[in-house]
Specification:
Number of strands: 10
CATH topology of the largest domain: Rossmann fold
Low-confidence stretches: none
Helix content: 40-55%
Strand order of the largest sheet: 2-3-6-4-7-8-9-10
Number of domains: 2
Structural class: alpha/beta
Oligomer: single chain
Length: 265
């Protein structure tokens, strides 16, 4: 009996430790930024302009504006949870080659961007970049594109604006559901500060929606993207399944290359 009680105490202590770690370290688990020196100079193969926007609380938000020769429109791109614009700027060249301008931002604490992170400021900062896009383009020329973590932010922005199209690459139903999938034994809804309920935002998205998701995604399961797709209330939707695609390699598949060209047109 004493051994049993000791084991129970150990398990309870372990459970409490895991709960506390998840609560206090969740930002480090969700966001994996790399930082850049303030005077870092970007170099890319495509023409671009670096710019900064400022939030109401004084946070500086760094962005890049790529220019195509004969732009068909602009893609407002919300990137994944790791890296910074020195990496994500390279990905913009794929869309510039298709004759689209690209605007991409770094979230707070990423690259040269500053400020304190929260779920609320992810949305308000993103809106600043949408407003910047509106200063340079008509709204019907704007395609909002989200990748991985950025899909929730992109969906929220599309839900409160009227872009031409919303494209989501490897999206999740919500961060809560994603965390529950990994930590099913924990009270996730009570612990998680970042919920990003994409499935709720998508109910208010009026434009056409296209989802790309790989069947072998081990970061955001294909089932999560499929569930999000099924929650879309209107018929202007398309889910493109990349058989064998993982989380970070869809661009290597013909199904993505061919269909991404079609859906942008």
């Amino acid at each position: 009996m004493k051994k049993f009680k000791k084991l129970v105490k150990i398990l309870v202590a372990l459970f409490i430790t895991i709960v506390l770690m998840l609560y206090f370290l969740q930002e480090k688990l969700i966001f994996m930024p790399t930082t850049l020196a303030h005077d870092y100079e970007y170099t890319f193969s495509k023409p671009f302009q670096e710019f900064n926007l400022f939030a109401e609380d004084g946070a500086q938000l760094n962005g890049l504006h790529f220019k195509a020769e004969r732009p068909k429109g602009v893609i407002l791109y919300f990137h994944g949870n790791a890296g910074d614009l020195s990496r994500w700027g390279e990905i913009a060249s794929f869309f510039v080659d298709k004759q689209y301008d690209v605007i991409v931002m770094d979230y707070r604490k990423y690259g040269k961007s500053t400020g304190k992170l929260s779920e609320k400021v992810l949305y308000t900062d993103a809106q600043l970049f949408y407003d910047y896009s509106l200063q340079h383009y008509e709204e019907h020329e704007i395609t909002v594109y989200g990748r991985s973590l950025g899909t929730g932010i992109a969906t929220q922005i599309a839900s409160v604006n009227k872009p031409n199209k919303l494209i989501l690459e490897t999206p999740y139903y919500s961060l809560v559901s994603l965390a529950k999938n990994r930590f099913s034994f924990l009270p996730i809804e009570s612990l998680l500060k970042y919920k990003i309920p994409s499935h709720k935002f998508i109910q208010q998205v009026a434009c056409a929606i296209v989802i790309f998701h790989g069947t072998d995604d081990r970061i955001v399961p294909y089932s999560s993207g499929k569930r999000l797709y099924e929650s879309i209330p209107h018929s202007k939707k398309q889910m493109i399944t990349i058989n064998g695609g993982a989380h970070n390699n869809l661009i290597q598949f013909d199904a993505y290359l061919q269909n991404s060209t079609k859906v942008l047109e």
